[in-house]
Fold:
Amino acid sequence: MPRTQLMLEVQITKEYLGFATHLVYLAPLFEETLLSDTYAKGKDSTVCEGQSMAHCSVHAPHTTGMAGVANIGSDRNWTGSHFDQANWYAFGRLAWDPTLTSADIAAEWVKMTFSTDPAFVSPVVGMMMGSREAAVEYMTPLGLHHQMARHTHYGPGPWVGGGARADWTSVYFNRADARGIGFDRTATGSNAVAQYAPQVAGQFADLKRVPEKYLLWFHHVPWDYHLASGRTLWDELVIHYSQGVQRVLRYAQDLGRPRSLRGSRALCAGERISGHSGKGGPVVARREHRVLPDICPPATACRLRASRARPPILRVALFPLRARRRAAAVVQLAREVGLGKPV
Structure:
């Protein structure tokens, strides 16, 4: 739409990233989007430049903007989680100046919200900056999408199908079958890549050139396909799930013992993430092989433990008053997914 002034819309509310329950800082996603090169008018045609947003284009019109699906509600702190306030704040800062970095915005917010002590600011900003990739790893690695349980969007549900619309289901997006997994959006599938400029479309449509983080979004890939690491797709998926869980466990440890009510609520959020991420990886991985038993490579023997990848260690940060209840829940979860007792 070269003759129409456009405005980018982003989702602040994290509908597919844990809502107000999971700690996912979205500014890196917003920043990545604004700086993405569309090649619409040749190289360096970023999203920000293409919309003629102020600070990005010398041809910016008098009025520019950026819309967001809000994440505020009836909670006393507006967003349900203190960390979700950072996404509301980052949206406003980037709408005003899209050239700001997500790390600088995170540092601003942490200093205004918690403490200006560098010993506190540095690890918390680091946690925020890595939180989006952690969520992607323990929920939808390698370009998978929408693999959550129906209604809640928290627990895993790669088997979810039926309902009012096909594209509201997990099976619509994963397309898992005996051959492989992933949505073919190339010319042999939906041909959604045709919407991009030729330079971008060519990269996304090429199985050898598409960035691995988008792999299963654009391609239906065989289970035994070898990625850049040399591992098969199956083993790479399990490793990504494991890495996501381990990241969250480190975040819970970094939060440490809270010194205030605000800190306690933040740690509560860390607890919930630990529980959800620990359940996601093994359940999704085992479910995909249980639903399709004939696709299991011999080396895995349809069991997560048999994979060369290390299974997620199901540990959680516990408050003393909740320790027994949470430990019992984690033991039960481990039994359900066949991992035995958690470490």
Remarks:
- The longest helix spans residues 261-291.
- Residues 8-117 form one domain.
- The CA atoms of residues 132 and 338 lie 28 Å apart.
- The first strand starts at residue 8 and ends at 11.
